[in-house]
Amino acid sequence: MSEMENELEQTQYLTFQLAGGEYAIGILQVKEIIAYGTLTKVPQTPRSIRGVINLRGNVVPVVDLALKFGLPPSPITDRSCVIIVETNPEGEKIVIGIVADSVSQVIDLPAQDILPAPAFGTHIRLDFLRGMGKAGQKFVLVLDIDKVLSAEDTAVTGGPDNPHPEAPLNKDATHPDQ
Q1: What value, to the nearest 5°, has the Cα angle with vertex 133 and ends 153 and 113?
Q2: 49: three-class secondary structure by DSSP
């Protein structure tokens, strides 16, 4: 099945809580949901990568989307979990875990119930969003998880020249020590 057909047929989304907001990702990309457990920290990774887990013998990075979106890190509670997703950002299948404060439910969102995101008022880059999903009287932010978790964005960007590890280095910037 092509990616375009897959998008057209996608109507079910997993909703989850993160830093006080409700988000949704396509259920077809969700592989499993596991309890938040022990993570192994990896040096020189972006702040949004909390660490890695051993998932049946595979190393799986765990990303905190709250940090990636510029929000404060969520405290870990007994409802915290890791949503294991499969992304395909550049034609290469990648399995990544994302931290969620809690998982809400699976909802049906037909294409006509997903509206374009406004150009203001969201703390997320617009290209990270598929749109705003109408869920009853409220909206959920429907994420384009392939763009949110692209290989480029999860690559190591920190280091001595980049005090803000979530921001890519600006190659054109002048440095006072040059």
Answers
A1: 130
A2: strand
Q: Which of 17, 44, 40 is nearest to 100 (CA)?
A: 17
Per-residue pLDDT at 125: 81
Long-range contacts of the stretch 71-80 (C-beta < 8 A, 24+)? 71/18, 71/19, 71/123, 72/19, 74/18, 74/19, 74/99, 74/101, 76/36, 77/101, 80/35, 80/36
pLDDT band at 102 (very low <50, low <70, confident <90, very high): very high
DSSP letter at 124 equals S
d(CA 100, CA 75): 10
Architecture of the domain defined by 3-154: Beta Barrel (2.40)
What is the distance in angstroms between the CA of the first residue and the CA of the last residue of the chain? 52
**Distance separating alpha carbons of residues 24 and 140, to the nearest angstrom:** 6
Instruction: Check: CB of residue 67 under 8 Å from CB of residue 47.
Output: yes
Distance between CA atoms of residues 95 and 37, nearest Å = 17
